[in-house]
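2024-03-11 09:14:02 INFO receiving multi-entity request
2024-03-11 09:14:02 INFO entity count = two
2024-03-11 09:14:03 INFO echoing inputs for audit
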Amino acid sequence: MIAALILVPILAGLALYLLPRSADALAKWIGVLIAFGAFAIAIVYNGAPDESLRWLQRPFTANFHVGLGGLSYWIVLLLSLTTGCALLAMRVPRQRDFVASMLVLLGTMTGVFIARDLLLFALFWDFMLIPVFLILVAWAPGKSAGSAWRYLIYNLTGGLALLLATAAYGVVEGSTDVIGLAAGHGATAIGAVWGIWIFAGYAFAFLVKTPAWPFHTWMPDTYADLPAPAVAVVSAVQSKAGLYGFLAIAAPLLPDQMREATTPLFMIGLIGLVYGGLIALVQDDAKRVVAYSSLSHLGLILLAVFSGNPIAIGGAAVYIIAHGLFSAGLFLTIGQVESREDTRLISRLGGLGARNPKLAGALTIVALAALGLPGLCGFAGEILILTGLYQAGAIVATVIALVPIVLAAAYMLRLFQSFMHGPELADIPERKDMRPLEILALAPLVIAMVLLGVYPEPVANVSPSVSTISLPSAGIR
Amino acid sequence: MPPFVMPFGTSDWSAVLPLSVVALTPLLVLLLDLILPKAMRRGAAVTIAALGLIAGGLLALQGWGHPFAAFGGGFVNGGFTIVFEEVILAGALISLLLATHLGRDDQSGGAIALLLWSASGAMLLAGAANLMTIFLGLELLSLALYCLCGLSSRPSAREASLKYLILSSTASGFMLYGMALLFGATGSVQLAALLAPPASTTLFTLGCGLFMIGFAFKLSLVPFHVWTPDVYEGAPLPVTAFMSIVTKAGALAVIARFAYAALPQPQAQAILIPLWILAALSMIAGNVAALAQTDMKRLLAYSGIAQLGYVVAALAGTTALGLRYAIFYLIAYMFMNLGAFAVVALLSREHEEGSRLSAFAGLGYRQPALAASMTFFLMGLAGLPPTAGFIGKILILSSSVDAGYAWLAGVLIVGTAISVYVYFKIVRAMYARTTGADIQRAVKPASLLPWLGVGICAVAILVLGLYPVAPSDVLPLVK
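2024-03-11 09:21:47 INFO inference complete, emitting structure
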């Protein structure tokens, strides 16, 4: 039944092509139903026994092994929730085909997070690129496919490194069916020579996918070109695959290498944190503001992941979900502004708040969650991460990590202010406020932001890995 | 005492029964071509030929588990031979499904007969275990193809035919010289004789080198690949599809038998190193050259060069698992490549092959099912999941790493990264909204038979991707 979380969306997505081209509304409701159905199934089957099917016996053992629990449970919830909400309020041409791509994306991304076998993980890791590439090709504005290429080539290069690392791991260890069963596993056979290369392959793939500076250059274009519902899901969940990989794969399987890599990855995280925040301050395109803010926020999570401190790692789990919620919310709201005004440039918009109080309210809440207002989800993650970093003794890093939090307030308020306040634009005759469906689509995200903000314990207490083992303390001294 | 004694017994003849069936079926095809009215000829020829190929395949399976060295060691039947025979027959069968574009109606009988004779030559190569049978098989394979390449009326067809004839003959010359030197070094034409330490190491090494150069030509490994794109472009589509699998399978069988079973052990790895270097060069150069192509047949030619590089890379270190994975990837490549050719066949009009990349523009909106199939085949060729290409690459990677050729695995990854752009250029063309001003109308294919090919290939790629079964008991024998 856990496997159905993967198979049903993919098969349903392909089956949508059997519908007539005009059946847009039907396709949309099928998509919404399947996404929320996945949400319900995930809740019911949390912690259910793993499901496994024989795949390869030689040259190493690999199984179709899926399981739901720990961090992956929360990410699957986030994924199905954002997909459902994104589909509910979407306004894109050729809706049937779009829903089909989104459902395939849902299924393949779920696969990444519930795979318990490295080879299966690698399979879905590459597979999930295809629907995004197709969406970029078919729905991106403009004729050039630059963003599609950049997305595919960057991520697939990472994916191939991951593939090679997986093959090498399988050959060295004799089995790839190790995610979640890793207690004591990493300490065994992987020697220094192989370990460093295998870790390098995984780390490269994870950093490109996150993306972390300096591998982020595919991200702003991709986020700017994807239609709002797709970018909401991609930024909310696909960008978490790399961080999840560090937590669920690198930390338990390659702990020594992880510890050795701490210093360079701290540097990468810190640079991304400050750089992303600074660039976000000067962007004119609202989507790019959010894209660069993601770079900054994900850098913070990267710090937490490599701090080795349990509080910080709990905070990383909370912030992974929190960032998913508010970035999905931001992209959906910006998409609603864009669909009304035909632009999302900060310099060209203004005064929407007066005629669109509901839209203004929605943007207020998600922007506040993003800038870390206490009581909303962003704050819960940030405070846990900063506390953990401080406790781990990384004082300098903690102080530097405070800077982008201030920057976040600046760029989020700038975005909000220029959209909603100021003189009304004269050239657009009529504006309609949010439709009920659009409110309905944002409501679950906002509720989740508040819930996670006031009660982050369940997420913070998930063990960092997918299994019950605790991370070896890496320690920044 | 009987007046006439057959020099070989029935078990010798039964070892070559499958290929004899494939070689005799064309006679029936030609006979029917004389008798039947013009309208029925092509259909009858395709049907008879398909039945002959299927019969050959079933007969070949009968020999499984009974290795036998027929004709004094000239043809060794065994698991290895049978697997390659099946690959050749399947490749020929699927190519046959595209044969609505093979010559004019009055040529089709002859063309299909030549196709089958060529296949029988490749089958001979699959089991050939002495230098004479190797050469016999190779010439049988090639002579029929020289004619087939020149079949269409385009000027490029004549060029292709001539180019193939000259370059292939040159390669045969190299190989014959190598064979002569090997004979000089060992005093025997049997591959088995190569196993013993040679009398003259210089002669032996030189002979091996020339022999491998000859087969590198046939496998079109870089830098012996220059004929491939021109010949593929000029030849009719079914012939190109046929060449991309059948000749490659035949040549690979010989190279694998040579590398695995016919070299004296201490020196074997050193002798073979140039082959792995050629494989590495092919993976990179093939994919880089494919970047610039605008014709599907040329593109698939260059991609085939790279793909054969992957297959040969799997043999590096000559491990038993490596051979199984090379065969697995060859089978996967066969389905992916022939699937792509079948899509091109479905885009072809009466007198124009739909192999220009522009024929794919907007296909995702005109013929969604065809575009989806093509996407799936291209994903496979690029090594993306959930296809047999993905799992095949993983298997090759792990066998190279295991055999101590991690550098080859690294080159494979780089080559694959380049190839992604090659294949997804087509995917992009199919799904982009605004490519080209003219959105063409859906092409009505001349025959629906290629759809069968598309279906078979797609199902095979998916199933092999999820349940990869690499054949066991396939170590080649020389005696």
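2024-03-11 09:21:48 INFO post-check: The two ends of chain B are 31 Å apart (CA to CA).
2024-03-11 09:21:48 INFO post-check: Chain B has two domains: 8-263, 264-474.
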